[in-house]
Amino acid sequence: MLAPGLAEALDQDFIAGIEKNDVGLGALGCGGRQPLRQLGRVGAQVSRVDGDGKSAAHARHRGGQLDERRQFTEAVLSGVSAGVLGLDNEGRIGHANRAALNFFGRQEAGMVGRDIMTAVPEMAAVISDARAHPERRAQAQITILREGQDRTLNLRITREVTDAGQGGFVLTFDDITELVRAQRTSAWADVARRIAHEIKNPLTPIQLSAERLRRKYGKEVKSDPEVFEQCTATIIRQVNDIGRMVDEFSSFARMPVAAMKPVDLGEILRQSVFLQRVGNPDIEYRLEMPDDAVMAECDGRLVSQALTNVLKNAAEAIRGNDDDEDGGSAVTADGAKIGRIHVRLTADDATAQIAAIDSGCGLPETDRTRLTEPYMTTRAKGTGLGLAIVNKVMEEHGGQLILEDAPRNGDWDTGARVRLVFPRRVAAESEAKEAVNGV
Ligand SMILES: Nc1ncnc2c1ncn2[C@@H]1O[C@H](COP(=O)(O)OP(=O)(O)OP(=O)(O)O)[C@@H](O)[C@H]1O
Ligand SMILES: [Mg+2]
Question: How far apart are CA 212 and CA 232, in angstroms?
């Protein structure tokens, strides 16, 4: 409320104007004369009042202010890392900030004006929910397929409520794919380490006891000695198997410590493909790489382990679940190949990239990001550790594992493309050294 002294100095219209408007003095839509001029000096830039008390300059000024505010808001939104979409009451996109446009890989013209339900159908359910319950703030995690990859988004929808009723929505989202994956892996690795530790402890005494029973009492057992022998042998064998499984389990849970040095990725690739060719004579392998060595700062042993897993997966995707997945099947009678795997090494100054494209069954449609989690498998005989190991190796190298469909350009109707992207780091430096040393 206004102080009584000030109220007396202002005419009634002016007071009514103030009480109706809370957007600042410069935006007042009132018809006072004298008080307006006084207030004009106070700070609002009202310059001229027309005959009926409505100020054209004032309206322009207000428009200008709104424009400024809009520009300010847009400047702020363009700088935030979260995607922000402004929607009207009907769900049409009125504004998309830079992060949102980048995420969807679209120009502003491709987003603004479109109905969110058709532009991003994955968000439809959450938006319908927000519409049905305008009083609550809707929040959800959704998965969106983008460039062949699943991305997890944390979505929040806030409803604007105006004097005239319900306005539009403001929808903000963060891409939390990597965060979710890192959380899952670290939670899993922690549990794995503990379980492995606890399981391994009693294994050795069990095995030693069984061996002792067999050695010491084997000859004394007169009734059913075969059963005795069979049972002790089973215990020893099974305990051995558990021991190996636990070793595998805990060696995954332990972060591999990569020993980095400049290596020729081409040479590692050549060896890995050679071994696969020998093991899978019924698959056609094609290897493409530059003539010059592609040096990168890597742990050669880990890279070759990763490549073996990727190539093994490709061969298994070609064979399918029914056949002998262990490879090594003979060439078909007429020498025909059952599928193709093309491996390509490319490099630029910053990165070296290995891509393996196969003509197999293709990656599963759903949950693709989870394929790199331990024990995620669709194969009957799979353990689901292969890609988890590849992913870990790539993390150790500061690189990236990308799983996608084989490019559907006529050459590949089915199949997957798995890319390993390595940063080259000091590679350029070591190449220069080699050049100096004449290597
Ligand atoms: N080239 C590929 N084509 C089609 N699907 C693939 C390919 N590579 C991986 N996958 C899918 O990813 C899943 C996980 O692969 P991963 O290598 O981690 O485990 P796996 O091959 O099932 O078992 P293993 O531990 O024996 O490697 C596979 O079960 C398969 O569904
Ligand atoms: Mg595998």
Answer: 10
